[in-house]
Amino acid sequence: MRIAIAGGGPGGLTLARILHRHGIGAVVYERDADRSARTQGGMLDLHSESGQHALTEAGLAGRFWSAARPEGEELRILDPAGRMLLHHRPQPSSVAGRPEIDRSDLRDLLLDSLPGDTIVWQHRLVAATPRPGGGFALTFDDGRTTGCDVLIGADGARSVVRPLLTDAPLSTVALLAELSVGDVDRRHPDLAALVGPGNLWCLGESRILAAQRLGDGSLRVGISLPADGVGLDAASDTRALLAGGPGLGAAPDTRTLLDMFRGWSPRLTALVEAADGAATMRRIETMPIGTRWATRPGVTLIGDAAHLMPPVGEGANQAMLDAAELAAALAANPADPDAAIRAYEETMFRRIGPIAEMSARVQVMMLTPTAAADLLRFFTPEPAG
Ligand SMILES: Cc1cc2nc3c(=O)[nH]c(=O)nc-3n(C[C@H](O)[C@H](O)[C@H](O)COP(=O)(O)OP(=O)(O)OC[C@H]3O[C@@H](n4cnc5c(N)ncnc54)[C@H](O)[C@@H]3O)c2cc1C
User: Fold this and answer.
1) What are the binding positions for NADPH in this chain (predicted)?
2) What is the DSSP letter of 295?
3) Whose CA is nearest to atom 26 of ligand 1?
4) Is the terminal CB of the chain with fewer CB neighbours within 10 Å at N or C?
5) Is the pLDDT score of 210 beyond 80?
6) What kind and span of H or E run contains 189?
7) Please, what is the average pLDDT of the chain?
8) Do both 45 and 134 map to the same domain?
9) Does pLDDT of 289 surpass 80?
10) What's the CA-to-centroid distance between 46 and ligand 1, angstroms?
11) Residues 23, 57 within the same domain
């Protein structure tokens, strides 16, 4: 049985690793040229019941705890004047929490655990065509072709495998401008102190200025805005951003970004002014809640390819849990992969529905005019009794 996995993100690599532990070979086709072809983005907090569970199944829990940054769980929520509204500190040496790990460290940890020939770099899948006798013919962007008996789409938000199973549309729920500030302790100690070891969210009316400390001593800064512009004082804010960034036009300049934070404390807007280089713009897209499909022999989806949700802390965790559950099903039933796929999909659809609903609710909450009050209620435990 030739298993092909399209995409070497958290989902695809976790799947390949757990299959390997069960003695089942798989090939991961990844579009990146190599492991260092692009920066991997910010941190991920891995939850015990999903991301951490998958790493335990992968036999990598010990290495995860060596690379994890439990202090990265610290969260500070500020208002536009710079007043602290909430300060969550993780319990010291807690193993019950949701420790953060840099995406690049997670990717390295998974890549290093796989036999060298598992990942085939520089292979962007462009088409998967059913073969008459079963399985799929795979075509890559340089014209190369190969075949497989089982195809698993782990190729993220804009999956090429997804249309074999569903034509669920994507909708844009927010816009995100991403910036980076390097070597922050030396160059901007004031910003290092403001953000602390974890996450900072500054909540204004229908906009968020957030920053995250990474293990390499840099800050990742993000500006989130509602995609429809509702709640923004000047509709031109959204128009300017929609016109900016790769895939969206030219990148917005610092002045355009700062204009959205008129009246905010200069301590906070310094995060934008200190950024190295232009902003990267992206649309935050989602699939409809409750997306499911009729099982089709020889093909399935995991992670963002299966259930693209707003980025509120579940996507990578669920991708890794998908991987663990699909690998377990295939290992339990190697003679009948279609039965394994059916069992995996039923469990995954049931699990993802409520998580996608919760993620959508939090996403809406974060970009409403009353975000600060709503989020404080969300994070403040109900008094006992
Ligand atoms: C700003 C932001 C913050 C987030 N924060 C969190 C968080 O804190 N916690 C959390 O759990 N989730 C978070 N998420 C969500 C998380 O990033 C995704 O849900 C997760 O990465 C999905 O993993 P995946 O393996 O399914 O897909 P991806 O991570 O997208 O990986 C897909 C892989 O497939 C490759 N690929 C794509 N197309 C092809 C192709 N045609 N052929 C070959 N290879 C291909 C890509 O290069 C990539 O390596 C966040 C997302 C964003 C945007």
Assistant:
1) 38
2) -
3) 303
4) C
5) yes
6) helix 189-195
7) 90
8) yes
9) yes
10) 14
11) yes
